[in-house]
């Protein structure tokens, strides 16, 4: 973590180097959020390697404390693998309602400074503080105030990145985790990405990183050396984005009202499912969860997608679209059954089922469509 003097120096640089037209973006990322909430609420867990998730043979790690991460335990890792890496790992069942409540407290802190907030998850968000409610000139000072207020309010630590665009702010927040603050000024931006591995770039996933490395593109400098035409030819629509971020350029605005494209839920089962009846029964609480979210957000969707993962981890999806949005939980449950039936009998046991509703529209728009009668 930077010293007070170093942060003050950076803040001065940020203030003097950023022209009024340049955006001031903060990326806030809570440190090991789910696990940190559990350690906060149960003092007996503090200092121990903790994994939030199921400890069963089919369990998956949802989050890991920093003590667990030292053993290589990571989110989305099978619980059996995590336990093998860290025999003393303590598993805690997730409490999502608690995490949502804490997240609301954190977002209330953000709202003290700006309404231009783009949530990425319960524990992560972009903030545009170019113009802010308290009239603070330094984005670094705002980030310091937010981190301090989050600690006072929730007892948790947050890392922050400050820069002139979203890409660099995200990289900066990772730079001094946990409980860190780092600033990338406009003068630093292009050089900051030069020596970073492309796999560290937000927006470059593992498959794309492997493709880049096969082309000899291993670092930001290698990426910058490629022409716009080459990147567009090899990476399609993402090519121009990669061309820009290699030069510290990212024009994406912070979007406070990002349009949600889909709503989904899934469940991994302790024992494989083999019969249609067992799967229909298992799909009902999944459909209920999806529908409750649609109801709460007043959303309706025209496409329902069923996800099936077999015991050998092979995965398939089946989708059904309609001219009219799904109007009720009963409709969603019916479509789920219609998508499942043709897959029977299953070649292997089923370990996971999921449902997603997409092609979303507002409930009022859905009602208007249903009132239009064919001529």
TrEMBL record:
<dbReference type="Pfam" id="PF11799">
    <property type="entry name" value="IMS_C"/>
</dbReference>
<dbReference type="GO" id="GO:0005829">
    <property type="term" value="C:cytosol"/>
</dbReference>
<keyword id="KW-0235">DNA replication</keyword>
<dbReference type="GO" id="GO:0003684">
    <property type="term" value="F:damaged DNA binding"/>
</dbReference>
<keyword id="KW-0234">DNA repair</keyword>
<keyword id="KW-0963">Cytoplasm</keyword>
<dbReference type="GO" id="GO:0006261">
    <property type="term" value="P:DNA-templated DNA replication"/>
</dbReference>
<dbReference type="GO" id="GO:0042276">
    <property type="term" value="P:error-prone translesion synthesis"/>
</dbReference>
<dbReference type="InterPro" id="IPR043128">
    <property type="entry name" value="Rev_trsase/Diguanyl_cyclase"/>
</dbReference>
<comment type="subunit">
    <text>Monomer.</text>
</comment>
<keyword id="KW-0239">DNA-directed DNA polymerase</keyword>
<keyword id="KW-0515">Mutator protein</keyword>
<feature type="active site">
    <location>
        <position position="124"/>
    </location>
</feature>
<dbReference type="Pfam" id="PF11798">
    <property type="entry name" value="IMS_HHH"/>
</dbReference>
<dbReference type="GO" id="GO:0009432">
    <property type="term" value="P:SOS response"/>
</dbReference>
<dbReference type="InterPro" id="IPR001126">
    <property type="entry name" value="UmuC"/>
</dbReference>
<comment type="function">
    <text>Poorly processive, error-prone DNA polymerase involved in untargeted mutagenesis. Copies undamaged DNA at stalled replication forks, which arise in vivo from mismatched or misaligned primer ends. These misaligned primers can be extended by PolIV. Exhibits no 3'-5' exonuclease (proofreading) activity. May be involved in translesional synthesis, in conjunction with the beta clamp from PolIII.</text>
</comment>
<keyword id="KW-0548">Nucleotidyltransferase</keyword>
<keyword id="KW-0479">Metal-binding</keyword>
<dbReference type="GO" id="GO:0000287">
    <property type="term" value="F:magnesium ion binding"/>
</dbReference>
<feature type="site" description="Substrate discrimination">
    <location>
        <position position="34"/>
    </location>
</feature>
<keyword id="KW-0460">Magnesium</keyword>
<feature type="binding site">
    <location>
        <position position="123"/>
    </location>
    <ligand>
        <name>Mg(2+)</name>
    </ligand>
</feature>
<keyword id="KW-0238">DNA-binding</keyword>
<keyword id="KW-0808">Transferase</keyword>
<dbReference type="Pfam" id="PF00817">
    <property type="entry name" value="IMS"/>
</dbReference>
<feature type="domain" description="UmuC">
    <location>
        <begin position="25"/>
        <end position="205"/>
    </location>
</feature>
<dbReference type="InterPro" id="IPR036775">
    <property type="entry name" value="DNA_pol_Y-fam_lit_finger_sf"/>
</dbReference>
<dbReference type="InterPro" id="IPR043502">
    <property type="entry name" value="DNA/RNA_pol_sf"/>
</dbReference>
<comment type="similarity">
    <text>Belongs to the DNA polymerase type-Y family.</text>
</comment>
<feature type="binding site">
    <location>
        <position position="29"/>
    </location>
    <ligand>
        <name>Mg(2+)</name>
    </ligand>
</feature>
<dbReference type="InterPro" id="IPR050116">
    <property type="entry name" value="DNA_polymerase-Y"/>
</dbReference>
<dbReference type="InterPro" id="IPR022880">
    <property type="entry name" value="DNApol_IV"/>
</dbReference>
<protein>
    <recommendedName>
        <fullName>DNA polymerase IV</fullName>
        <ecNumber>2.7.7.7</ecNumber>
    </recommendedName>
</protein>
<keyword id="KW-0227">DNA damage</keyword>
<dbReference type="InterPro" id="IPR024728">
    <property type="entry name" value="PolY_HhH_motif"/>
</dbReference>
<dbReference type="GO" id="GO:0003887">
    <property type="term" value="F:DNA-directed DNA polymerase activity"/>
</dbReference>
<dbReference type="GO" id="GO:0006281">
    <property type="term" value="P:DNA repair"/>
</dbReference>
<dbReference type="InterPro" id="IPR017961">
    <property type="entry name" value="DNA_pol_Y-fam_little_finger"/>
</dbReference>
